[in-house]
Design goal:
The complex is a heterodimer of chains A (211) and B (315). By secondary structure, chain A is mostly helical. In chain A, helix 1 runs antiparallel to helix 2, helix 2 runs antiparallel to helix 3 and helix 2 packs parallel to helix 9. In chain B, strands 1, 4, 5, 8, 9, 10, 12 and 13 form an eight-stranded mixed sheet that branches. In chain B, strands 3-2-11-6-7 form a five-stranded mixed sheet.
Chain lengths: 211, 315
């Protein structure tokens, strides 16, 4: 299947998709506290924190969806956007963490230390961020060229991130697991598809390693 | 049985400024001297319910810097899973909920059990307006001007039998009217419980209103419990049954996650929720966090009931 060619507006759309939620969330927080608006409801700090975490997961879905969509539609030009979505996931994860540390607990050192050592869901979430860090750092063209085959192996770490993210989300809710359950299903499909592909490609050729 | 009456501390009602003057976030604007001030001020006036200007009630256990949380926040930021798990869901999904006719049953170990129409249930008791601090287990808090009757008054009238030790409360079970009950989020119907002395405490209210108005559906209409020294989820909403027993009743959140939500659930900054700290709280409408107080600031009134108890075990 050949598929359509890359629309001219597409790069702008990608930038809008990755920048707008973050910019709007921060603007809404400032507006709510300084202008008395209610964009983020009664508890803007928590709402913004949750929105940023949720966007991190959305960009992870987008990152992992690029390859299957490309295969299904032949829109190979999507490949270029995979890095953008991956970096967006990292930056939203980072801003989600910074929001928690600076805006939510307001640099309460004792609580930060306690959370990062005792609270399992925060440890797991922080681990997800740490796993994304080397991927973000090695996302440049020169890093890809320098690392050669090792780049692909390193970047398979991306499959660990949604697992950590989902565990973090699932552990942080009180009783309503609807959203984390939905994202679990999405990631199960996206990771399951890769496993199935790998099985198909390696049948009769057991030497090809997954990692 | 009855502990000495709770007296207001630190403040007289005349010290409390009406809610209309406490649009904390909007005050920033005035301070910043922005021109949009007039617009925001006008919207504040429009959003304010009629009657909010009147005295909001008698303050109980308020700290000097406690200001009533705005009507908008009190009525749009609710945990009421029977009407959705999002904070703004109940205001939306409970809109058409019919609370009349409503029957309340008082049963179990009482000499005078009965089923009452809500109006008859409330009629013999004195209705009071009281401003309480409200602390959610999720580490946010409000200051709310409730209207209600003392639970102890209702129980005394029902005449507890000698062996009665606990009170169990039950929410309406009607998935057709409470859509959240169609999903197994919690064990339905929601139940809560108090020790009899806690239930008889003069601070414990059965609430029928807020800000001098009838209780909005999303806040637990037509009848909810308020126990100001306990985490908010103890304040069971839309109550249809009050039952006295000699055994500790099962409570919805304790059944759901026994290691996280105990029977007592007293506000306690030194006993953390397993997943987060309870040392501080964010007051809705404020940016900076404030320290959480033992028994939510009602220690002088209630601490005696827990003398000698290990509050770490009895969380």
């Amino acid at each position: 299947m050949k598929g359509i060619t890359r629309p001219r507006w597409w790069p702008w759309a990608v930038w809008l998709i990755v920048l707008a939620p973050g910019v709007l969330t921060v603007a809404a927080l400032v507006s709510d506290f300084l202008l008395g608006t209610r964009w983020l409801g009664a508890n803007p700090v928590k709402e913004g924190e949750h929105l940023l975490g949720s966007w991190t997961m959305k960009y992870l879905v987008a990152t992992l969806a690029v390859t299957p969509i490309r295969r299904a539609t032949g829109w190979n030009w999507l490949q270029r956007d995979r890095r953008t979505f991956g970096l967006a996931a990292f930056f939203y994860g980072l801003v989600h963490f910074l929001w928690y540390a600076l805006v939510d607990i307001q640099l309460d050192g004792a609580q930060l230390a306690e959370d990062l050592t005792k609270r399992a869901y925060i440890i797991v979430g922080f681990a997800a961020l740490l796993v994304m860090l080397p991927l973000a750092v090695t996302s440049t063209r020169s890093a890809v060229a320098r690392l050669k085959r090792r780049w692909a192996s390193l970047h398979r770490l991306v499959y660990v991130v949604p697992v950590l993210g989902i565990v973090h989300w699932w552990m942080s809710v009180k009783a309503d697991v609807a959203e984390p359950a939905l994202y679990s299903a999405l990631f199960a499909v996206l990771l399951g598809w890769r496993w199935w592909q790998w099985r198909r490609e390696t049948s009769g050729n057991a030497a090809t390693p997954l990692f | 049985m009855l502990i000495r009456p709770a007296v207001p501390r630190d403040l007289r009602s005349s010290d409390i400024t009406p809610e209309s003057q406490y649009w904390t976030r909007r005050e920033w604007l005035a301070a910043a001297g922005l021109t949009v001030g007039a617009i925001a001020g006008a919207s504040a006036l429009l959003a304010r319910p009629a009657g909010a200007q009147q005295a909001l009630g008698k303050p109980y256990g308020l700290q000097p810097d406690d200001k009533p949380t705005s009507w908008d926040d009190v009525t749009t930021y609710n945990n009421f899973y029977e009407f959705g798990t999002g904070k703004e869901d109940p205001a939306e999904q409970a809109r058409g909920f019919k609370t009349r006719p409503w029957t309340v049953r008082v049963e179990g170990m009482v000499k005078k059990p009965g089923a009452y129409a809500l109006e008859d249930f409330l009629k013999p008791s004195k209705v009071e307006d009281r401003i309480y601090r409200h602390r959610c287990v999720e580490a946010w808090s409000m200051v709310v001007p409730w209207r209600g009757i003392m639970l102890g008054d209702v129980l005394k009238r029902a005449e507890p039998a000698p062996g009665a030790k606990f009170v169990e409360f039950t929410t309406l079970y009607d998935p057709a009217r409470m859509p959240g009950q169609r999903y197994p989020i919690l064990r339905w119907p929601y139940t809560e419980g108090l020790r009899l002395d806690e239930a008889m405490h003069p601070l414990t209210l059965l609430v029928t209103g807020v800000y001098g108005r009838e209780l909005p559906n999303q806040n637990g209409a037509p009848l909810r419990l308020i126990v100001p020294w306990k985490y908010g989820f103890k304040g069971i909403k839309s109550i249809v049954r009050i039952r006295l027993t000699d055994t500790q009743p099962a409570t919805a959140w304790n059944v759901s996650a026994p290691d996280e939500y105990g029977f007592y659930s007293n506000v306690n900054p030194t006993v953390d929720h397993p997943r987060w700290s309870q040392a501080k709280e964010r007051r809705i409408g404020e940016f900076l966090r404030r320290p959480t107080l033992m028994f939510n600031g009602y220690a002088e009134d209630v601490a005696a009931m827990y003398a000698g108890m290990d509050l770490r075990r009895n969380y």
